[in-house]
Amino acid sequence: MHEMALTASLVELIEIESQKQSFSRVLVVRLDIGALGGVDPEAIRFCFEASARRGILDSARLEIRIIPGKGWCVDCAKPVEVFDRFDACPECGGCNVRATGGDDIRIRDLEVE
Fold this sequence. Notes:
It is a single chain. By secondary structure, the protein is of the alpha+beta class. Helix content is 27%, strand content 35%. It is built from 2 helices and 6 strands; from the N terminus they run H-E-H-E-E-E-E-E. The protein has helices at residues 2-21, 41-51; strands at 26-34, 61-67, 69-73, 78-82, 97-101, 105-112. The strands form 2 sheets. A 3-stranded mixed β-sheet has the order 2-1-6, with helices on one face. Helix 1 crosses helix 2 (41-51).
C-alpha cells in the first residue's frame, strides 16, 4: 500500500513547515489528488487518520479534491479531461488519448493556529 508511504511523507512535510512557519496546530489539510495518479483517496484518508493522532495534526480534518486528468486526443487534436488512463476521448470517442497531467498529489492549503 503506497498510500501509507505517501501519507507519512505528507505528515513529515507538514511538520517541517510547522517549524519553518511557527504554527502549533493544524485544523484542516486540503489535498488535491490527480485522477490519474493511481492513489486511492479513501486509503489516504484512512492512513491520515492513523498518522494524525499525535502532534500538530491531532484532530486535523482532511479534505480531498480529485483533480481530473489531462490528456491530448491524437484523433481530434484537442486537450481533454479524463478520469482514467484508458478513457476514450470525451469529444470524439476515440481511444488515442495521451495523458499529459493529473497524476500528482499536492497540498492545496492548510488551516493552522
